[in-house]
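Problem: given the chain below (351 residues), write out its structure.
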Amino acid sequence: MIVKNEEQTLARCLSSVNVAVDEIIIVDTGSIDKTKAIASDFTDSIYDFAWVNDFAKARNYAFSKAKMDYIFWLDADDVLLPEDTQLLLQTLSELTSDVDAVSMPYHLSFDDDGNVSSSLRRNRIVRRERGFQWIGQVHEYLAVHGEIRKSDAAVTHRREHSQSMRNLLIYEEREQSGERFSARDLFYYGNELKDHKLWDRAISQYKKMLDQGEGWQDDNIAACGNAADAFHALGKLGEARKMVLQSFTYASPRPENCCRLGFYHMEEGDYAGAISWYKQALHIPSFLQTNSLQAHGCRTWVPHLQLCVCYDRLNMPELARMHNEEAAVFIPNHESVLRNRLYFAEHLVSH
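Solution.
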């Protein structure tokens, strides 16, 4: 792990994984709080690394200190839930010498009922002797190849820190130095700008990335969706729609982008047009999964709730109520579901 000023989360993280690992390596990049003292309760392998605005260098240094056959990495605001710790132990017990890496789900957010609402997959465990390296100053990735297994053991992200300008400032400094960004850098630079509501600048980076023609398929699709969100925030609905439609040139439609198009139609009062896109989101096969970020509601309850609204606006209350109940299967206690039930109880009785 690489850490800096993680006194709020480090003990929680290490306590969740301690039983599953043989050694814990902490690389501190400049903490001024109790981070290292907390780490010392779990390990003696604590190292200092002078921060040089490069996450990959820090992570590669941490990897260089590992001694076991396999390396498992986490961030301090990650945690393994008890059931996932058990699944991790099972995964580790089943590792064979031909396995080069293991990918695991990364749960990023949850709904009010505790269901995962967004997630992706990341390569979490690697065979040390392969010498796999981290690449990228910011939003770094672990470059692996060979025999990669999938595990159901999930890492849960529980952010405690507020949005930071750190990553954005690193990108701006690199841009000002005249560095030529890779497609991946342009994508994540755009994401940082979007997260800080710098819409026009974000759109510019996404377009540069897509025009470059060197991006990964999943990043291209995500860039289209993110650029669409930026255009939408600027009130440019036509440009937003064009960006979503461009995503279809890279691969078959994703549920998230179908829901975007449905929402645009709803904003224009075209409820019949919206229905076709929300139905498309529901009918995208579940086996068409991706390792990139997924908003799980866009293939389940979100389309149903929006179809409920659309059919109600088209004076088709029975269909509207049916879709509300379909949404309730996934989010039974959601305020919209409960409010809609009250609405239909009054509406259908009065008619």
